[in-house]
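[step 3/7] fold_predict: job queued, chain A
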Amino acid sequence: MSFFNIRAGLRDFFRPYSAVILPTRTTVTRLTNYKGMWNVWAEYEIYISSRRLERDNVDLQLGNIEREIMKEMCQYKPGQIEGIEEIQYGGYERIYDSQNWAKSNWSSKTFIRCRFYHNNSS
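[step 4/7] structure written:
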């Protein structure tokens, strides 16, 4: 699908639909009962942008992508992604940019938290 991509980093302004994942904060705590084990919580923001929507009217496509990401995060089972123990969905917010002259670029950001363990027993 050349019209949609998901990647880490900055938004792709040249595709009609885009989702990018940006890390925002990581918290590391040492597990007291396990030598060399660390509990890591990483927070991410997923930016979704839709450029081909009708002028001045939010199309259903942006909401469909938001709901699909919510479904994937809420139905995550430990072990689906190697090393990630837990994913927590933290909601989303629409971005209404007053600088948008075309009024056809819509975006939102979704907040998630991931928990994994780091073993530093060397």
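[step 5/7] annotate
The chain has one helix and five strands.
The chain has a mean pLDDT of 78.
exit 0
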